[in-house]
Each structure stands twice: as structure tokens, then as C-alpha cells.
Write a structure and sequence with these properties.
With 233 residues, the protein is α/β, with parallel strands linked by helices. It has one domain: 3-Layer(aba) Sandwich (Rossmann fold). It is 42% helix and 17% strand. It is built from eleven helices and eight strands. β7, α9 (187-199) and β8 (203-207) form a beta-alpha-beta unit.
């Protein structure tokens, strides 16, 4: 890559994408890890954070591995609470409280360091993260482009449309939707992307089945995966 060029642009362009989902466990971390690894392998100044988390820290560790340890765990996941509950409740169990202003300030500091910043939320779009905010609030505060991750199965169209409806209008218009495919795709799975494209202005992508234990290197060898990641930005 020629000096001064990053991610296909003549000048570095700072962009923030907020990866949220229709629920917990839908594949947000897998997407974030694949995407940040792909960008960095192309020479991009990119990072992925999961600022708020509860329960185990496997998600944050996967992001750290995807970046080859470029950031310490404390920077990737600065607000972590032990109980496997919504972060607001997990924080209260530790007699702590978390507020939008401090989390947004921490993310803004990271925005200044990277051309592309991927921010992963915890749980679904409206799941409470702190005393006064959820992922939707952070998307608005950061001016981030939302990326909604959802399982590619029957019923997902309704779930995605509800998430888009909950976003601020400008954010919804810029949103991306990533459907994560199961091991075998049925008729609904084959039709969901097209139906969503009819119903919304969001750009819709489908990632293939990546296996129970995802190998980042193995997934990135798939041309279809690389095409999705290239088109997301």
C-alpha cells in the first residue's frame, strides 16, 4: 500500500461503526473480530472495542487476538462487571454505576487514534448498558454508523425492522444489516436478505456459516467473507 493511503482512500478518513444486534449471542463479536482483522491485514489503522461487558471476557479477548494484541484488554473492554447480567444490573451488584458521558468520552478518545473504529455493544440495541444509556444512545452520541447483526432464520425480518425503527432516522438510513447464516439455510434464510432490502433503506449483507468454533484465519480465506467485509465500509 502506498504511503499516505489507507483503506482505499487518498487521505485517512475517520469512521466509527457501532456493531449491535437484535439479541445477545447473534454473532456481534465474530463480525467485529473478522472485520478488524481484515482491515488491519490490508494495512488499515483500525481497532475494535467492546467498551462495556459483563460476565466472562471471552469476547474482548477474541477482539484482542484479532488485533494481534495491539491493544491491552483494559483498553478494549474498560468497563467490565463480573455477573452475567445486563451491564447496568451487573454494575449495581458491585455497588458501581456507569453513565453515558464517561463511556462516550472513552470511545471518543479512541476515535482520535484510529481511521476506523469498530465499537461492539453488549446485548441487543436497547439492552441497558448503564444508568442512563443503551447502545442506541451511544450510536447517537458518537455519530456512529450502526451495524445490526442478526441470525439468518425465520422471523429475523421483523426483528431487524424493529431495531431499525428504534434507531434515530439518520442512523437508520445509514445502517448496515449483517445476517449470520446457520449451518443449513432454509427457504426463509434464502429470502430474508431480499425481503429486508425491499422493506428498508439499510444495506443488507449475508455471511456464510463459519462453523461452531470460528477460525478467523480460515474464515478470511473465504472470498465470500472478504467481499462482505470489503463492502461494509
Amino acid at each position: 500500500m502506498a504511503p499516505g493511503r489507507r483503506l482505499g482512500f487518498d487521505k485517512p478518513v475517520r469512521r466509527t461503526y457501532f456493531i449491535t444486534g437484535t439479541d445477545t449471542g447473534v454473532g456481534k463479536t465474530v463480525l467485529a473480530a473478522l472485520w478488524v482483522r481484515y482491515l488491519r491485514r490490508r494495512g488499515g489503522q483500525a481497532a475494535a472495542l467492546k467498551p462495556v461487558g459483563s460476565g466472562g471476557r471471552a469476547d474482548a479477548r477474541l477482539l484482542r487476538a484479532a488485533m494481534d494484541g495491539a491493544l491491552p484488554l483494559a483498553e478494549i473492554n474498560p468497563w467490565h462487571f463480573r455477573a452475567p447480567l445486563a451491564p447496568r444490573l451487573a454494575a449495581r451488584r458491585e455497588r458501581k454505576s456507569l453513565h453515558r458521558a464517561e463511556v462516550a468520552a472513552g470511545i471518543r478518545a479512541a476515535q482520535k487514534k484510529f481511521d476506523v473504529l469498530l465499537v461492539e455493544g453488549a446485548g441487543g440495541l436497547l439492552s441497558p448498558l448503564g444508568e442512563d444509556f443503551n447502545s442506541r444512545d451511544l450510536i447517537a452520541a458518537l455519530g456512529a454508523t450502526p451495524v445490526i447483526v442478526a441470525p439468518n432464520r425465520l422471523g429475523v425480518v421483523n426483528h431487524v425492522l424493529l431495531a431499525l425503527e428504534a434507531l434515530p432516522r439518520r442512523a437508520a438510513a445509514a445502517a448496515r444489516v449483517v445476517l449470520m447464516s446457520p449451518a443449513s439455510t432454509d427457504a426463509a434464510g434464502r429470502a430474508n436478505a431480499g425481503l429486508l432490502a425491499e422493506e428498508t433503506r439499510a444495506r443488507v449483507f449475508v455471511l456464510p456459516w463459519l462453523g461452531e468454533a470460528v477460525s478467523l484465519a480460515g474464515a478470511l480465506r473465504q472470498a465470500r467473507v472478504r467481499r462482505v467485509l470489503a463492502a461494509l465500509g
